[in-house]
Amino acid sequence: MKSENGFLLGLDTFGDVTRGSDGKYLKQHEVLRNVVEEAVLADELGLDFFGVGEHHRDDFAVSAPEVVLGAIASRTERIHLGSAVTVLNSDDPVRVYERFATIDGLSNGRAEVILGRGSFTESFPLFGIPMEQYDLQFAEKLEIFSQLRNESALEWEGTIRPPLTGQRAYPTTEKGSLMTWIGVGGSPDSVIRAASYGIPLCLAIIGGQPARFAQFSELYLRSLERFGHSPQPISCHSPGHVAETDAEAKEQVWPHYRELFSRIGRERGWPPVTYEQFEYAAGPDGSMYVGSPETVAEKIIRNARLLNLSRFNMKYSNGGMPHEQLMSSIELYANEVAPIVRDALKE
Question: For position 5, what pLDDT does the model report?
Fold first, then answer.
């Protein structure tokens, strides 16, 4: 999967609620409008993909990514637009396909969807989905979605809903199918499942060492061959931030990283996050791409080769980091990181 630019570079955001110039948190509606402006900038600067994640809690503004992507579609011209990720097991697969097919029409064929199970579970009680059906819901809904990608009559029977017997989903897409990825966080079973459907793989590397995910790329490629599918692209989603220097980037990210993960840690019973942990994550072997353009580019190049990637998506929003810092990071990522990476990874 290549563009005219060669290796693909994208951005992801969850619409993290950011702080304004007065240090106070912005209202969620303000954050939503800023996300659209960030996507417009990414398009203007020639980046390849802009992904919007889904959450249902007060520290993230985006609960309906398709609506946000529709707004972005009307303001952009070439950048591909997708989710990061769509929590399929707490949604309806037919409605998901129809919503993204609608974005595809509005954007002249630029829509994508990344399907996953998500690392947050607030959507399950909110939508009345039993947590004990967490895995079953995903497995059966993915079966339905795989049929939807053919854009033909559905024939499906399972346990989570009445059978589908000849129904179709609309609108259809320009290319006859919606570009779809399956996001995985490190489960071999999930990697094999993605390969069994012949659906491209997105590695969500948000902690630990990226090097340990090389085994999953290899497993995916072997499994594709075993299931009789043609080679498919692999992408990666990881957090990051670009500033003029390594020190400046870390200084900008750390207080917001500490605040965000301290809050999540309290909810999940984790110990308080330390600066040493953050510094390791931002270092050469960690999962965060934080630093100067040269530092971030070098890390992307190394891990793209290691993981056999076709696209790297940087999750550029980091907790309460101000909109102005995010815009600056996008500019440096597009104008300075991207040329280095594309030149190093060109065929």
Answer: 53
Report whether pLDDT(41) > 60.
yes
Residue 278: pLDDT band with limits 50, 70, 90: very high
Among 334, 318, 304, which Cα is nearest to 249's?
A: 318
Give the pLDDT confidence score for residue 87 in this predicted structure. Answer: 96
What was the pLDDT predicted at 264? 85
- What mean pLDDT do residues 284-302 have? 98
Sign of CA dihedral 223, 164, 89, 62: positive
Task: Please state the domain extents for the chain.
Answer: 8-345
In the block, tokens 């953050």 appear at 278
Using CA atoms, how far apart are residues 140 and 156, in angstroms rounded to an integer?
A: 9
The pLDDT of residue 3 is above 60: no
Residue 151 in contact with residue 180, Cβ under 8 Å? no
The predicted model scores a pTM of: 0.96
Would you identify the CATH topology of the domain 8-345?
TIM Barrel (3.20.20)
- Length of the chain, in residues: 347
Measured distance CA(232)–CA(142) in Å, rounded: 18
Residue 29 tokens, joined: 């509606």
Euclidean distance between the first and final Cα of the chain, in Å? 12
